[in-house]
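Dear colleagues,

I hope this message finds you well. In preparation for our joint manuscript, I am sending the Coagulation factor XIII A chain (Vidua chalybeata) sequence together with its predicted structure, so that both groups work from identical material. I would be grateful if you could confirm receipt.
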Amino acid sequence: MSETTSTNVENKHLLNGRRAIPPNYSNDEENEVPEMEAFGLIPRGFNPRDYLSVVDIYMFKEPHEINKQEHHTDKYYNPKLIVRRGQTFQIQIEFNRPYKPESDQFWLEFLMGRYPQQNKGTYIPILVGNVLKPGQWGAKIIHRENNSIRLSIMSSTTCIIGKFRLYVAVLTPFGILRTRRNSATDTYILFNPWCQLDAVYLDDEKEREEYVLNDVGIVFHGNVEDVKSRSWSYGQFEENVLDACLFLMDKAELELSGRGNPIKICRVASAVINSRDDNGVIAGSWNNTYDYGVAPSAWTGSVDILLEYYSSKQPVRYGQCWVFAGVFNTFLRCLGIPARLITNYSSAHDNNANLRMDFFLDDEGKVDTRLTKDSIWNYHCWNEAWMTRPDLPVGFGGWQVVDGTPQETSDGMYRCGPASVQAIKHGHVCFQFDAPFVYAEVNSDIFYTRMEKNGTQVVENIDTTRIGQLIVTKEVGGDGMVDITEEYKFREGSDEERLALETAVMYGVKKQSIQDTTYQPQTDVDMDFQAQKAVLGNDFKVTITFRNKSRNSYTATTYFSGNIVFYTGVTKSEFKKHSFSAKLEPSSSSSFDIVIKSSEYMSDLLEQASFHFFVTARINETGKILAVQKAIILEIPTLRIKTKGELVAGKETSVIVEFTNPLKQTLENVILRLEGPGLLRTIKKQFGRIPMNSTLTWEVKFTPMRPGLRKLIASLNSDALRHVYGELNVQIQKP
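The corresponding structure tokens are as follows:
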């Protein structure tokens, strides 16, 4: 550390005229606690051993013991005690002699951070009483035998989340005797979705098992016509992940006293998950070059990312929306906040939040990429976290949108949420935080606008149904998809939908009404666009169909533009241009095919194999323009995973990953990753190259530690081919 930085650190903790003590936002720092706290002069001949003193403290912290079993924390790979707030746990204290309640007095102390204070919830003295009050700190003796007593301890339902140090203090006439600092008695306290008084209480056991205890999930990607899915390992119980998640709150400088509040935790976490403006966990990259880092598509889960950040304290490269959402989900579930990963298909990234995505056309009807600033993401992933919202009117608790992907700033930082899903649905976007932004992501309209030579804008076409037309998450207890669009918006075209929109506009969402613009569409001709199932490396066909519903003959000058795009809808290159004149007979349909050759797109293809097609047609007789756009995703080959031999906990077995290169080219710099939470930590292997049509086989030996249903997840990454995944559910037998 250079001299300047070390003095900065000291200055940071120096007191100034505003604070009595320095800011207290490190869960790791400690204060010195005296073992003997004298009341005055200690008389000669005083021997602490004459008084009650603690010989040992037993925490019942093994996974099979009562505390971790009752608190649903037995899955954490962590040797210390982990309990959930607002629920009793037990410890046993062994003294040097039998405890005499009439003359002996002792109490427990839980401390956190460097400057513990009772009024901040970082110093918690607990006296032993006769009754435990629900949701309040307290302790009572439930068993006495020889020199030991067993205590049942109740923690507060608003207790701060994190790692506490435990001391036992004994009162003597001359001072307080305390146990020595012993890290083995450290206790983690987490949120408790099983406790009715906790802000994150969730009343359905199956949902709690999914949204808190499931350590693998599904990311839905692709696009609305072609939904694809892949597994993601959250790994919230893996070794050191809990400490890494607590470190994120230290990094975000969230005061320890604020850490009992899930709203605050979500807000600061949505900023610290991305590296913008605070050197947070993941550096985003959307430009298809991933030097000195890992391509976003190569990650198979959150654990590697969190542990790398925890040890290096530097942003991990690289992520895109599902990576931010996957890591955020791990953070939330690890701390005990119910959470799920959401995918919004055709997600609007509206740069000026006016509920209007503007696509500008030039004179000929082609899209003008210079003027068009808004983009439609094929899909965008965010998270929902479950909590009450005492800061909002009644009815806006439940699922809250939180988003760690850096898109726009909120109060000066790249963060988003928590925004109530219920408030978004009903248009009550005045309620904090960032509801207007999320409202626009799921509700914008697409305007096709032509610029006249004199600068006036003519709206040629409006599409009100494309944005946010499908919002999904993983089903509870299975790998299927659940459509939750109706939780975010009323049915398209219903009265309630219009009312919600008017409410949103009243609360300040900018929306230009169609009356403000000159817009008379061509209503008697429909244009549709369909594509064949397209496989990576093959040719495929697209079809444009016109339906002329009128009694007139028309001719349509048609422009077709095929673009290779990032999944964010931003164009990298136009690889196909085609224009033709279509004759439209009265009351009839006519179709036109266009063949797309693999040689036209393979050299420029991006990792998610995404195309975006624009078709615009000018009806020559009326001068009106029809416009349609569509995203298409190529079918990418998958990895095959199989196991060899029997699968028994504690016994070595092996897994085989296979892949056949389908491309008409050699794959260079191939890297395979394999992981399975509770089965094996991520293993990476580099293969130089895979020639066309040849098959790669990789065998990995491992020893599964725990019985039960588990999942293996693999990914392949190379220069020319990414987003290749495979997975396998495995049942590990008891030995």
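For the figure legend, we might mention the following. The chain is about 15% helix and 40% strand. The chain has four domains: 36-190, 215-507, 525-633, 640-732.

With kind regards,
E.M.
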